[in-house]
Amino acid sequence: MEPSNNTQISRFLLLGLAKEAELQPLIFGLFLSMYLITVFGNLLIILAVSSDSHLHTPMYFFLSNLSFVDICFTSTAIPKMLWNIQTQCKGITYEGCITQVYFYILFADLDDILLSVMAYDRYVAICHPLHYTVIMSPHLCGLLVLIWWVLIALHSLLHSLMVLRLSFCPEIQIPHFFCELSQLVQLASSDNFLNNIVMHFAAFLMGVGLFAGILYSYSKIVSCVCKISSARGRYKAFSTCVSHLLVVSLFYFTALGVYLSSAATHSSHSSTIASVMYSVVTPLLNPFVYSLRNQDIKGALKRFYFMPSLKDQIP
Fold it and tell me: What tens digit of pLDDT does each residue of 217-235 get?
């Protein structure tokens, strides 16, 4: 088949998670449930943080932003997949595919950034507690989030524009449930060398660079915690990091699984399963990790739940 210019492409075909028709209702029900739980759980975190003045701190400001990004992250791919299953149509328009690539990169990278900033926040809180309110001022926290939103939006735009320069064959089949950048680049019928260079450089910068920052922050935290004389003090200091450590582990291990499965194997199925863990399961588990392990969040959720009944009792 002769390569066609990308302006002639009307749509791509998303092959999804399974070809068997009898499995589609099961997949639909499972992913719809996970999506609704993800949205509901992360909305609860946002509502708890915004409604409780005790949680108006940098740590929970970043957590509420993480929850918002997680909702957007899952909304990038899951609703379209559910729609395709329901309508029994595997197509996605060329414009829709590029848009999906843009927002997937945007929210995945923002997840990465927020986890790194949250690690720095814990480092300042534990290692420099007397200067915490000065260093992590509300103005600085808001400015940090705004700057990273702008930078990551430009970074995502770069990848999307570079996909536009590629040519594809008509009716190309993507062995995935959404338009994933690396698979899209590999399926191009034109030269994709520059795209691969930029893609792997960005992955190294965003993945390895930010993860190194997280490791540095926690190395300093461990060093400071070890200097605390009482065991109770060490436990109290480190307990504020447990939820964040669990989320970081989930995020980076699943992200590493996506990268290794796409780089080391030709099996699209293994790459798809890894992507499910990365883009669906991790945002699903984040609210549970923070609500079950964090006493402040649990207290805020209880106060938020009982708030209407308390207001009714006030004469």
Answer: 999 999 998 888 888 888 8
